[in-house]
Every structure is written in C-alpha cells, then in structure tokens.
Specification:
Chain B: This is PCI domain-containing protein. Chain B: Keywords: Cytoplasm, Initiation factor, Protein biosynthesis. Chain B: GO terms for molecular function: RNA binding; translation initiation factor activity; translation initiation factor binding. The complex is a heterodimer. Chain A is built from 12 helices and 8 strands. By secondary structure, chain A is α/β, with parallel strands linked by helices. Chain A has an 8-stranded mixed β-sheet with strand order 7-6-5-4-2-3-1-8. The longest helix of chain A is centred in the C-terminal third of the chain and has 56 residues. The radius of gyration of chain A is 26 Å and the shape is extended. Chain B is mainly α. Helices cover 69% and strands 2% of the residues of chain B. In chain B, the strands form 2 sheets. A 3-stranded antiparallel β-sheet of chain B has the order 3-5-4. In chain B, strands 1-2 form a two-stranded parallel sheet. In chain B, strand 1, helix 17 and strand 2 form a beta-alpha-beta unit. In chain B, helix 42 runs antiparallel to helix 43. Classes of the chains: A alpha/beta, B mainly alpha.
C-alpha cells in the first residue's frame, strides 16, 4: 500500500502512490468521511498494537520501519486497536522493495499488499479502518518534508490521522518512546491547498515554527484480561529491582550526546544552507527592484511624452521582468523544529545525567 | 585611352553642348547660333563616331588651354611680371638666377587649381564620369585651400563648376543616354550629381544666375584683371618692402635684421598648434634663426621657442619624441643654460607676468630682460620623454641599448639644471630635478654606477677633444644647406655618441654620496610627495646595496606602509618595487621570514606584473577596463632595464613560504587561522594532481620540494630547491651560493618541525639525538626548535633535560568534543550570516550596523576561546549548546518579527538579547 521511505533517503512519495491509497481509503471510509470533523485530542493505543509496533521497530533498527495503524475514530479520540507492518524496504539507497527491483511495480505491489492485508484482517474481524501510520525514528529526526507530505496525502481521505513514532534509542534508556503526532490545523490551513508557504501567509495566520506538528497525548489501554495477566505476573515482585533499573544508573552518556551533537551540527549546516538561499533571494530581489525601478522610471517618462503627444499610454506592468520567487520557509520551520527536538532531548537527558552524577558524588562522598 | 569604342552614339548631343560652352568661352561669335545649328556645324559631315573620338580630344584640349590663357593667369604671363618671378614654384623653376625664385603659397595654389580645372572641364566634355568624380573632389579641395586665403571664388573656378553642372544635368536629364551608360559610369554620374548639388548648397552658389552673367564676364575677362592678379600685386609690394616672412630664410645672413627675425618668430609662433603646420619645418626654421640671432636675449627667446616646438613634434602623450630630436632638444636646453649663465641680465620666469620687453637697442645693449619659460619643466619633459622612449622601444634591440647609453648624458644634463637652480636657490625646481636624478640613480648598484661614470667621462672627454669645426660652418651655411646636411645625419648616424655638446663632465661623486645628498636636500625642503618618493628611492637603493637591516629601519621609521594607499599610483608602484627589492635583499641575507613578509602582498594576489608596473596583466575583467585606463597603465610602465625579475621574486617568495609555513599548514586544528591561504591552496592543488611529473617551472619545483618536506625527505627537498636555475639571477653569484647553504639549513629545520607536527602524536618521547641524526642538525638546534614549538603552543609536551628527550602529551579530542566544536563552528557561521542578513535590513542605520559588527566580533572571540579549550566538559558543552540554541531561537524569532515590519523594535530587542547573552552567559 503506502510505502514510507526511510527518513534519511529524502525520497518523497509520488502522487501515484498517494492516490492509490487515497482511492482505496476513500472507498473504505465512505461513511465515516461524511461526519463532522473534530480535531484529535487523544490517542488510545491498544497494548497489543503497541507491542507489535515496538517489536517491529526494534527489529528493524538501525533501519527504519513503517506500518499502518488500524482502529476506530471516536469523536476527539482515536482508538488504535491494531496495526500491521509494511514490507521492509531493501537497504539499497533508492528505496526499492526487497522483492522487486522496479520502483513503480514495487509501489503498486506495496499498495496491493496493503489492500490484501486489510481484507484479510477484516475477515478475521479486526478493525480495518486506517487511522494513520507508525514509523520508527532515530533520535527524533523525523521533521522533514516527507512527514508533512505524508500527512497531507493521508488527510485527503481521512480527516483525523496520526503518526505514531517510536524511537528505539530512547527506549534503551528505559523510557516509553512512543509518541503520537499530527499536523496542526493552522498549518493545514496555511499549507494545505497549494503547498505554498510564503512569509506573507505565515504572518497572516501568526503561525509559529512550533505550530506545525503537535503531539497528541497517547495512552495505552489493555484489555481486562491482559491487565489481569500483568497483575498476576507482577504480584509480589513489585519491590524488586531488575536489570533495567540498574541500566538506568549507567553513567555512560557519551554516545547519546555525541549523536545528538552531530545531528545538531548537521541541522545548523542545513540552516546555513537555507540562509544562503534567503540571502541569494535578497540579492536577486534587490537587483530586480533596482532594475524594475529603472524600467518604471523610463516607462513613466515615455508615458509622459506620449500623454503630451496625445498617444495611448503604455501599461506600467512589465512581463519581461518577473520578481524572483521567495524560497519556501517550510524547510526552515522544519529545521527549527528538529533543532528544538534535539535540544529538548539533550536537556532531558542531561538533567537526568546531572541527577545521576549528583547521586554518585553523594555516594562516593559518604563513603 | 579613357574612352571606349563601345560608347554609344547617343551621348553625342551632351558632349556637344559642353563643347559649345567652351567654344563660347573662347569665341563669342559662335554664341548667336542655336544649339542645333551649332551641332550640325560642329559635327558637320562627321558621321563616324569612332573616328571623331580622337579629334574630339584634340580639339578639346586645345580649347581648354586657350581658355585658361584667356582668363589671364598662365605661368608664362607671370614670368613677365616683375616681382612674380620670385613667386615661381621652386621645383619647376629652372632659371639660373642665383637668388631663389619663390612663388607665394596663394599663387601656387591658384595655378594648381587651374590645372585641375583644365582637367575637369576636359573630362566633363568627354563624359568620362568615372574620373570626373575624382577630379571634382580634388577640385573642391584645392579651391577650399585657396578660398581660405582669398575669401572669394575665382571666376574661372565658378565657370568650371558651371561647366560640370551643365554636363551632368543634361546627361542626367536624357534617359536614353543614361541607360546606355555602363554601370560604373552611371553610378559615378549620379554620385557626381549629388555631390555637386550638395557642394553648391554648402557654398551657396547659384549657377543659374552666373550663367546669365556669363557672357558679360566672358567678354570682360580680358580687360578686367582677375582677383588673382590683385593678390599678386599685393604680394609683390610686400616683398619689396622686405616684409615677406619667409624671405629671411633665404636672404643673405648680413641682410637679416633684428626686426626681421622678430617678425618671423612671431609668425612661426602664430602658426603653432594650427592645423596643417608642419612642426618639423617650424623647428628647422627656428633652429636656423637661432644662428642668426643678434643678441643673447634674442637667442634665448628663439631657443625657448625651439624647445617648445621640438616638444610639439612628439604629438601625443602616448608616443615619444624621436631620438634625434630629443638629442638636439637637449643640446638646445644646455645651450640655453649656458646663455642664461653667461648673461645674468636675462631671467626666466615661470608664472608671473613678466615686464615688457625693452626696445631693440636696449636689448642689444644688454638691458635686463624677463622671458617666459621654465627650465625645470623642460628638463622634466626631456626626462619623461627619455623614459617614454625606453618604454616604447623593444628592449631586445640594439636601439634600446644605444638609447640606454644616453642615460649618462641625461644625468649630466639634469646635474647641470640642478646646478643652475642651486645657484639661484629656487627650492621647488631643485626638488623636482633632484627627484628626477634619483629616479635614474636609485636602481643602480655602486658597481653599475661606476661603470656608467667611467663610460660617461670617456665619452665626454672624446667629445671635448673634437676639433671645433661645426660652428664656423654653421655661420656660413644657408637655411637649406644647413638642413641638407642635417637630414643626412638624421638618417645616417643615429647611434653617434658625439651629439652631446662639449665642455661637460660627469659628476665625480660616488653613488651613495650623490643619493644621500639629494635625498637630504629633499627631506629638508620637499613637499610630502617628494619626501615619500625620496625615502623610497633611498630605501630601494639601500636594499639594492644589500643593507637590508638599514633599509628596513628606514622604511619602518617612515611609517609609509600605513599611508601608502593614499598616495598616487606611481608612488605606490615605487613602494611595491621597494618592497620587492627589500624582499630580495632579505632573502640574500637569509631573513626568510622577512622576505616572505615583504613579498606576500605583491605575489599572493597574482597581479605582480601590474603591481610592479612591469607589464599589463591580462585580467579576467578585461572588458571592464576601458581603453583610457589601459593607456594610463601603459604610461606607468617601468622601462625594461629597471625591471625586477618576477620569476626570481616568485621563487624567493615560494621558498620562503615553504621554509616557514609547511608545518603550520599541517597543523590541522589551527588550520583556519593559518596565515597563508595562497600557499595552502597551492599545496592542495599540487596534491590533487593525478600524476606529478618532474617539476617544471618555479612553482612546480617548490611545490615538489614542499611535498618532499612533508614526507620528511629533507635531502630531496634541498636538492630540488638547489637545482633551480633561477638562482643564477640572484645578484652576486658567490653570495647566492651562501644563501643556498642557508636555505638548506632552514629546510632541515623546517623538515624537523614538520616531522614533529605530523608524527609526534605517535610517540611518547622523542630523543633529541635521534632527531639530530635524522635531520643532520646539531642537538642544540633541534633543542631550540622543539622548545620554540613547545612555547608557541603548537605542540604540547615537555622537555626532559637529563635524558635529552622530550615527552609528547598527545590529546586527541574525543568524538564528542569534535562534534561539539563542529557544532560551535556551524553556529558561529550561522550567526554571522544572520547578522549580515540583518545588516542588509538595517543598513540605512550605519551606527547600529557597526554595533552589530562589534557584537559579532565578540562572538567570534568567544568561538575562538572555546575552540582552543580542548578540555571541555561534555556537560558544560551541552549546556553551552543549549544556551546557544536558545539564542539562536531568539535570533530567529526576532528576525521574523523584523520582517513583519517592526524593524526598529526587532532590532532593539535582538540587540538586547544578544547583549544579554554575550554579556552574561558566555563571556
């Protein structure tokens, strides 16, 4: 069905791909689409589905994995009850599917696979309503144009859709690294129709960089039976420490910070690139303005002369000169988001590390 | 011959008419006959055109010659008129008269015009349109010349015009004839018609009115003398009164009076600068007149004019005076000096209004005279012309060398002028002349100067020994004789060394004495520019003599390097030359660092040629430079013999770079601050090459040596450098050998430094003895080098004296640290760019932009401080990055609001935030 390439591959899905999904999804959700749309406020994730996602993503690491989320759309809350993985992309750089060398066929096959899968699931009475997709990510590097594009193509058919991102590296630190993301309404309005993202529009809406993607609170809900089993398992062992708890005390911080730092550095480079684009635009704009002013002055003089001679005036618009198109600000915003993401991670991480350090110092001091 | 047998019969009526006109002009009784009658009469029974052709021409020429004789001014007529015999054209004159017969210019023009008129009328009669067009142009030109003097048209000229007009119009009107003409002929016909109409319009001559008057004119022509005859009469009178201005040139020497000379002088001066005056002729006439001068004052006056006239012959600023004129001009100036010295009552004034010239008798008696003229300007101009001629000559010819020989005379001459001004104690010209002399002296080594002095005194002695023959000859010779011999000289013996006047000797001072004397006088009295130039001349010469230390001190004391950019370009060129020379001499002395410092500015830009004014470089922006600029640049060029070998400079520069900077290029962490990017780029370029063949050229060789040096093969590097053939050009060969030893020594040391930088991290300790073995250096020098590296911070380690080793403390940054430094750099770059972007927005407000700049530099300072801090705690790091990030955010948000229009607000806020951060958190 819908193949999501690895984030680092920077391959955008072709319209054909999104259309495949859009058509099929439209059929599937013909009844639901008619209902009034309210924004998603919360995501409830079924325990089984959550485990499936985690397993899929962890297995795929260090590669990236994607899959579909199935479930119910109940008012403001999305109930994700099931999920299935998309077939794994080959490790080849161009994002082909492993079982097909030809990209186009592969994409179709992917779509076919998705439809088949849904049908099969429906047959065994699983919710076969697509509510979004999940993907694994590496240190929060998911802010890119592909994410936006995918969201938009999903949004064509399902009004409420989420992306569940899972970060295996965070999970190693003993955190639940599941996050549900969606595009903000404001951004959808600005960006939605034409894909144009100019400074003017942004200002009209008062859109801020932090307003593009919003995180939806996620809750994991288990069936009563599952809760019971869990309770049974945990009984009497609650106070005991296990290896995970000890792992949390590890003082080795270098790899995580290092990676984050590198990524931050890359972000800054991207920023610099964007800035160059803007500077280039500014130069062009200045040149254009001076040229245009010159031309306009000449044209005015010419018109004044013509007026004096009683001739028709020439139009003051010029077709030959076109103002340079300003660069899109989307990338800029996304990079900013990415930087924010990294910095938050670092912040959280270093806070914890500080606490650990304090602890260690205290312990060694008391000895 | 001009006519073809294919010519159709139809042409005949037109020709006929023309012929009729001429018949009319000659024989009035034909006039009553009508055209047809006449035609029938003229042609009679003649029906065969091919036969008649020859007859036509015959009869026609007859008629034209008789017509011209009728109008009353044939040459034979003139012969009979008394004074006019002087006015006969010189060339055509074969009379045995011992006095030359002169024809006035006007008369000559007039007779020439007549000749053309005859030709034109003949052609018009024949209908030879092709040649008629040409002759018509000549006719108009000739008549213009004449009209400029007579102010009216001669009758015969107007008649000729009329004749052409008639012929053209009648032919043109008849379509049949026109069709029958060959294409070239018809083209010429229409062209002629157009030109004629245009010309008549221009001179506003109406031929139709004339044609009506023609009969009367014709009839009256014989009785009434032409305007031409009046002129002749007037000329005759003039000549008799002795007022003819050219007369003086051919008159007997004894006949010439003071007034005559005066008159002629005024005449020549009046012609000066006018179009059509031959400057060379003026010079000749004046030169002759100088020999006639009645008193010193007059001679001085004439000399002044001769000199100016000689300068005029050069024409434009871009060409130089011819060598022979230059030489005679210099003689004239010397003669002028002599006259001025011997006759103290004559003074030259440059600017002020001079008092009126005393009357003739007073003048002859030796009353004080003030004349207008500047010896200094003459001397400067002569010197400039000398330099210019050297610029223009091909330096590889004998001509150039023989011209170079004149330099000693220039020096003698300038010395004379200087003495003249010294006697009169005029500071300004003294400064100027002193500068000119310095300009010749500064690029000479003492030995060169000795050679020049010897050469000069030899030649001057030779000249002085020559028997005095010329003057007596001169006194007797006439204008023509004088210049007949002169012309022979000009072409024959160009390289003759004996043109210089007698009685001069070369100054007996040594070069250094002379230079210091001149420079000190300039330091005392000169203006800023001349002082600067004097310093530069002096410094150049000092470093040329090999006294680098002295030269350096001189230059440093002058503080010129700070203000030289405000000087004029010539002085800047001189400064560059001075620096180049200093680099050379520093290298010779083994001051490699200094040599590099001297040459960096000149050679790293790749425009050395331009900077030293030793050739116009072909720049990439050739289109941008306009013609004027290029001309100016050409004018600035230094003559070839004063060139400093750029290849030598380049090799010195590159070798110095190699000796000083190879190790710093390898010093990766400090890479960014490495001074010499050009050298770095060269090395990178060399390393990028796929194959490195045996080195060719300076750059290649040095790069090859550098590569060896990097690899630690100092011996190969030394061999590479030593084998460069360019060293033979290094002044003083025995000196250069010792320099090369110094270079080798330095190569060893640089190899040691490079080795330590590259490989030290692989060792815990390094033994000084081993190092000294490896690089064939003494232990002391190894110790010195290592200690220097340790103290200057390029290397971390410590010396251990007892074991004569040094321990290396390697500290490679961890990946985290390098990631952090990379990030810090990126952020700094980003911040800079952001400030620049903001700067564009607020550039109207320069003050704030400046403050921002200030802030930027603070951040950069911060970056550097962080950069060096290799022991950064990672926590600290992450924090600072966080902090930096939040600052980044602020910048971004402020930037956004800025573009929203509230510029001032945004700027203030941004500045506040930046200040807060830079003040509080980071610094």
């Amino acid at each position: 069905f819908f193949y999501r390439p690895r984030a680092s591959l920077s391959r955008t899905p072709t319209p054909a791909q999104s259309m495949n999904f859009a058509q099929s999804a439209a059929k599937e959700n013909a009844t639901k689409a008619a209902e009034a749309v309210a924004p998603v406020r919360a995501v409830e994730l079924d325990g089984g589905a959550a485990l499936k996602i985690i397993k899929h993503c962890t297995d795929a690491a260090p590669g990236l994995a994607t899959g579909a989320l199935l479930g119910l759309d109940i008012g403001g809350a999305l109930d994700v009850t099931a999920c299935f993985p998309f077939p794994k992309a080959s490790t080849g750089g161009d994002g082909e599917f492993a079982y097909d060398a030809d990209g186009a066929f592969a994409a179709e096959d992917g779509a076919q696979y998705q439809l088949d899968m849904m049908r099969c699931l429906r047959e065994i009475n699983v919710d076969s309503n697509t509510v979004g997709w999940y993907q694994s990510t590496y240190l929060g590097t998911f802010y890119n144009e592909e994410l936006i594009e995918t969201f938009l193509s999903y949004a064509e058919s399902i009004k409420r859709c989420v992306c569940v991102a899972y970060d295996p590296t965070y999970a190693e630190q003993g955190v639940c690294a599941l996050r549900a993301l969606k595009l903000s309404e404001a951004f959808m309005e600005v960006y939605g129709e034409k894909g144009e993202f100019s400074i003017k529009k942004i200002h009209e809406r008062g859109l801020k960089w932090s307003d593009i993607v919003v995180e939806v609170p996620i809750t994991i809900r288990n069936s009563a039976l599952a809760s019971a089993v869990m309770g049974e398992l945990a009984r009497g062992k609650a106070a005991e420490l296990n290896t995970t708890d000890y792992d949390r005390l590890s003082l080795s911080t270098a790899p995580f910070v290092e990676e984050n730092m590198k990524l931050l550095g890359e972000c800054m480079e991207d920023f610099a690139n964007e800035q160059q684009k803007v500077a280039y635009f500014q130069r062009n704009m200045q040149r254009y303005q001076s040229q245009h002013a010159h031309w306009l002055q000449k044209r005015r003089q010419e018109n004044a002369r013509r007026r004096a001679n009683g001739e028709d005036e020439l139009p003051e618009e010029d077709d030959n000169y076109k103002a340079p198109t300003p660069p899109s600000r989307l990338e800029n915003f996304l990079i900013t988001n990415q930087v924010a993401e990294h910095v938050q991670d670092l912040d959280a991480f270093t806070t914890k590390t500080m606490a650990k350090l304090e602890l260690v110092t205290a312990i060694s001091g008391s000895k | 011959a001009r006519r073809t047998l294919t010519r159709p019969q139809d042409l005949r009526p037109a020709r006929l008419e023309i012929r009729r006109r001429y018949k009319l002009a000659q024989t009035p009784y034909f006039f009553s006959t009508t055209r047809h009658e006449m035609a029938s009469k003229f042609w009679g029974g003649d029906s065969d055109s091919s036969v008649s052709d020859s007859d036509d021409t015959g009869s026609y020429t007859d008629s034209s010659s008789s017509a011209s004789s009728n109008s009353g001014s044939s040459s034979s007529d003139q012969d009979l008129r008394g004074a006019s015999k002087y006015l006969q054209d010189d060339s055509s004159d074969s009379s045995e008269d011992d006095r030359r017969v002169i024809q006035s210019a006007k008369d000559r023009k007039k007779s020439e015009l007549r000749a053309i008129v005859a030709e034109v009328t003949a052609q018009a009669g024949d209908g030879d349109w092709v040649s008629l067009v040409k002759s018509f142009d000549r006719l108009v030109k000739q008549s213009d010349k004449l009209i400029s003097s007579t102010k009216r048209f001669s009758g015969f000229y107007i008649r000729a015009l009329k004749c052409i007009d008639d012929a053209v119009e009648s032919t043109y009107a008849d379509k049949e004839i026109r069709k029958s003409l060959s294409t070239t002929a018809s083209k010429s016909l229409s062209a002629l018609r157009q030109r004629l109409v245009k010309y008549l319009k221009v001179v506003s001559l109406d031929l139709s009115t004339i044609s009506t008057q023609q009969e009367e004119d014709d009839s009256a022509s014989e009785s009434e003398p032409d305007i031409f005859d009046d002129d002749v009469a007037a000329d005759k009178k003039d000549n008799l009164n002795g007022k003819n201005k050219d007369f003086i040139l051919y008159a007997d020497r004894k006949d010439v009076t003071f007034e005559m000379i005066d008159e002629k002088l005024k005449d020549i001066i009046a012609c000066r600068g006018k179009k059509g005056t031959d400057r060379h002729v003026a010079v000749r006439q004046l030169t002759y007149m100088a020999t006639l001068a009645k008193c010193p004052a007059q001679e001085v006056e004439i000399l002044l004019h001769i000199i100016s006239a000689q300068f005029d012959t050069a024409g434009s600023m871009s060409t130089h005076m011819s060598v022979s004129i230059w030489r005679s001009c210099m003689c004239n100036v010397l003669r002028l000096i002599e006259l001025l010295r011997n006759n103290t009552h004559i003074t030259l004034l440059e600017k002020e209004e001079h008092i009126a010239r005393p009357a003739r008798d007073d003048l002859l008696a030796g009353a004080p005279v003030q004349l207008c003229g500047s010896l200094c300007a003459f001397a400067e101009r002569l010197d400039d012309e000398y330099m210019k001629s050297l610029q223009h000559m091909d330096p590889h010819t004998k001509e150039y060398i023989s011209r170079l020989r004149d330099e000693c005379f220039v020096l003698v001459f300038l010395q004379q002028v200087l003495t003249y001004y010294n006697e009169r104690e005029l500071t300004v010209p003294r400064m100027k002349i002193a500068q000119k002399i310095l300009g010749h002296l500064y690029c000479k080594t003492p030995s060169m100067y000795e050679a020049v002095a010897d050469f000069a005194s030899n030649r001057l002695n030779n000249i002085n020994e020559l028997i005095e023959v010329l003057p007596s000859e001169m006194c007797e010779s006439n204008y023509d004789q004088m210049f007949c011999s002169d012309a022979g000289e000009e072409h024959g013996t160009d390289s003759g060394d004996d043109w210089f006047p007698r009685g001069f000797s070369f100054p007996r001072k040594s070069l250094q004495e002379l230079i210091s004397e001149l420079t000190f006088s300039i330091y005392e009295m000169g203006d800023d520019r001349s002082k600067v130039r004097a310093i530069l001349y002096d410094t150049f010469n000092t470093s040329l003599r090999g006294e680098f230390e002295l030269a350096r001190e001189q230059l440093l004391m002058s503080h010129l390097q700070e203000s030289i950019h405000h000087m004029d370009i010539e002085t800047q060129v001189l400064f560059n030359r001075c620096m180049a020379q200093m680099g050379l001499s520093a290298f010779q002395k083994g001051y490699f660092h200094e040599a590099r410092a001297c040459l960096t500015d000149i050679l790293s830009s790749g425009r050395a040629r331009e900077l030293l004014a030793q050739g116009v470089s072909v720049s990439r922006h050739a289109a941008e430079r306009n013609f004027e600029q290029e001309k100016l640049e050409r004018r600035r060029q230094v003559p070839f013999h004063m060139h400093i070998n750029i290849e030598l400079l380049e090799s010195i520069y590159l070798v110095s770079c190699m000796l000083g900077e190879t190790h710093s290029v390898l010093d990766k962490p400090r890479h960014l601050r490495s001074v010499n990017r050009t050298f770095l780029r060269m090395i990178e370029g060399f390393e990028k090459q796929t194959f490195n063949g045996p080195p060719e050229g300076v750059r290649d060789t040095v790069m090859c040596a550098t590569k060896y040096l990097i690899d630690g093969e100092w011996a190969s590097a030394a061999h590479c450098v030593k084998s460069m053939s360019i060293w033979t050009l290094l002044p003083g060969l025995e000196g250069s050998a010792s320099v090369l030893d110094l270079v080798v020594e330095e190569i060893k040391q640089e190899a040691l430094r490079t080795f330590i930088f590259q490989r030290a991290s692989q060792y815990d300790t390094l033994c000084l003895d081993t190092l000294s073995d490896m690089f064939a250096l003494s232990v002391e020098s190894v110790q010195a080098n290592v200690s220097k590296l340790l103290t200057t911070g390029g290397l971390t380690g410590s010396c251990d004296a007892p074991t004569s080793t040094f321990a290396v403390h390697t500290l490679e940054p961890s990946t985290l640290q390098s990631a952090v430094t990379l990030l810090a750099e990126n952020v700094a770059v980003f911040l800079d760019a952001n400030e620049r972007a903001l700067g564009i927005r607020v550039e109207s407000d320069t003050a704030t932009a400046f403050e921002d700049e200030d802030l930027g530099s603070k951040h950069r300072g911060y970056r550097n401080s962080q950069y060096e801090d290799r022991e950064v705690n990672k926590l600290k790091n992450s924090r600072s990055v966080q902090g930096k990030y939040s600052r980044q955010k602020l910048v971004i948000s402020a930037g956004e609001r800025d573009s929203r229009g509230r510029k001032q607000d945004a700027r203030d806020r941004l500045r506040g935030e930046l200040l807060q951060f830079s003040g509080g958190k980071f610094i």
